[in-house]
Amino acid sequence: MKQPYLIALILFAPFLSIMGQDETLHPWTDTQGRTLQASFISFDAAAQTVTIKMSNGVVYPAPLSSLSAESQALAKQLAAPKPAAPSQSTSSPFDEVVDEVIAAMPADALGPEALDIDHDWSSADGRPLSAKFISLVGDQLTLAMNGGAKEFTLPISKFSEESKALAKVLQAVAKKHRPAPPKPAKPVAPAKPVKVVPPKVVEADLDKVHTWTSADGRPLEATFVSADDKGIDLKMRGRSSPMNLPWSKLDAQSVALGKALQALKKSLIPTILGGNENNLERYGSGKWRGYNTYIESVAFEAGILSNGKSAHIWLLKDGNRVQSRPFSVDFEGVFRDERGGWGHRKVTSLETSPPASNDRRTTTIKGKWNNEGSFEYSFELSNAGLSFWGDAKEPKSTEFPTSLRIALRAPSVVADAKNATLEDIKKASGDGALYVDPMQAKRIKFPFDEKWADTQKKLTKDGKNKIEYNPVKYAEFNGFPYGDHKVKVKPASTRKADLTWYVRYGVIFPAQGAALLLHSTDGSQAMKDPKNAAEYKDRLEISKSERLTVQVIRGS
Q1: Is 350 buried (19+), middle (13-18) or exposed (0-12) by CB count in 10 A?
Q2: pLDDT recorded at residue 341
Q3: Which terminus of the chain is more solvent-facing, meaning fewer CB atoms within 10 Å of its CB: N or C?
């Protein structure tokens, strides 16, 4: 790879002998009296080092202290600058000799490839270096190492005479083969902006699929979601979450359409009612009337009710709700009375009232129960899914200790499933089913059209459970009633949380009224052992690390 460089050296080798270092051999004696013959290269006063060159060409740096007094004096004498001969020219003999070499070189002696390879360089004190030539400007030589990753500039006086000559030759090659940079073009006057008339839009356009055009002319089919000063959110078919684009990515007409839709959406914002001790601040009109917070994703919609303890979830297909009634998620304070019956703590007051919003990810509600207990419930609504966690405190004097639980209840596919015929159920349910994955058994399928009596036969033997189907790792609703979607319900961790499922009382077809309950492990034990419920200290907490998660998996 370095052949062009070798050709150049052969061409000007006779001139290098004129410009090389003093080859006179001098006797050098060390402190032990040993003497060798070598020429002087350099003396570094700072490092106290003498560099000599032996007759076989080996360059050797020696500490000054290792030499005898006579040899030390010789080194300093040879290193002393020699008086410069008077000259009227600023050029040096080095420049004159190399210029002669360059003039005598054949036109094709070195090609442009010599500028793309590493060459062997050496410093004035003999240290080697492999690097690519970049430029020689005045007395500043610029080289690049490691494939161009490291570039540096040094005075050419820091290099040996051979390297100086090489730099001059390569600079001549660069002048011949590297074209001069083009002259900057005259600035073009900016084009006058095209005047765009804002389009007229109506409320139906907010849900319509529009054709948007990118700044470089490419079309995009998508529905408007929202916009602000920076850009626009668009919802495309096949994507689970909106896509954000800065305004600069769209052409002028699409920008005008987006801003017109945003102005229309703002004009349709519903009225908002203030909060009080019984209700959160909430929307007073429109689609989300009675809700404090909501999210509209591609696969689902969800909202937090103004009661501060409940959320509703609808599945969507092509922008329309799949089911007429939503999944519901409720925070509940439950206890067992002296007869073993179930009781629920009622919310008597709300201490916080977050402002009504459709762009808040986490909403935290604080309030009191009717036993003077206090609670803090947290709802997280995002395009990726929903999460619920919370904790509570109650007076130690409470007669029947409370446990906190989060309950998800599935809507019946048939409105009056209890009185519907099997034919009605099958027609409405199709292949819909509830699947549960127990901690101690394989996955179990509960078809929506199967009677609970038939389901029990599969789960029991001689009146006893042959399958421990509670607690479960997760549960999943899928099949015909939910379109292409799957609804997966699970705790974030099963280490300190129990997820169980049960059938509502009086329901003939179990999956038509299934509910999933999340307790802390202590909360679950307190419900089984009501006499000692107060001993389970974590019964009133479902931490964020054990939260209930609801993931809507969108089908193809």
Answers
A1: buried
A2: 85
A3: C
